[in-house]
Structures are given as structure tokens and as C-alpha cells.
Amino acid sequence: MIKEIVKDSMFLSMKSVEADVKEDQQVIQDLKDTLLAYRDRCVGLAANMIGVRKRIIAINDGKLLVMLNPEIIKCSGRHYEAEEGCLCHEGEKKTMRYEKIKVSFIDEKGVKKLQTFNGFTAQIIQHEIDHCEGILI
């Protein structure tokens, strides 16, 4: 189901809690539906952006990827300043990102994964994990 985007900075600034692949299937589906509905202006969403404080993110960098309990375990490459927008607020803001990250996560089928991401995909994931931590750019 397509959900409304939360813009309440008090809610968005709270840390999200661990997700469970079995319990959170509806949240996963809602997150994917909402991301696809906004695909013309959005490449990633965190569950708190649709009102659920769970550590679940979805990205769409040409293919849809859902991550439960994502954790960046290594950053490398260039550390650069990026300008990012967000559905939660107007305009773009500057933030610092790493060019390459290694992420530990559980996929939507419950499989534990360790994967390296580069460039724009790494930037999207860092933005969404910030949401899980209650960090707003």
C-alpha cells in the first residue's frame, strides 16, 4: 500500500528499532509500493519516512533492493560533500558521504548478506541509514 510521507522532524529524529523479516512483511511491501509510487523523484526510503520506526530501507538505483537492519561496517574511497534532497523536507542540503561502503544487512527473504556498494548507490544507502539513526540532512 502506498503510504503518506512523514515530515514530522521530531518523529524522524528518533532512532529506529531492529526489524524482523517475518513480522515486518507488510512494512516491506508498503515501503516498496511507496518508493515505486515516488520513483520519478525518489531513489530511496527508510521505514520511518512512512511512519514505522523499524530499521528497514529500500533503494531503487535501477533495481529495487530492500535491506533490514543495515549496518555500514566499512567506509573507503573519497570522502566528499554531496547535496541531497529528501521527500521529508523542501530543497537540498549539503552532507558528507563516502564513495564506497561495505554493508551488512538481511534481505527481504531473511538471508544475511555482506555487500559492497560504490558511487551513487553508496550515497543513497548512507542517506537512508542516516534516517534509521534519526539523522536528518
Automatic annotation (TrEMBL):
* Sample GO molecular function, one term: peptide deformylase activity
**What CDD domains does this protein map onto?**
Pep_deformylase
Pfam families to which the protein is assigned, alphabetical: Pep_deformylase
Source organism's superkingdom? Bacteria
SUPFAM superfamilies registered for this protein in UniProt = Peptide deformylase
Family, similarity comment: Belongs to the polypeptide deformylase family.
This chain belongs to the protein called Peptide deformylase
Instruction: Report the gene name.
Output: def
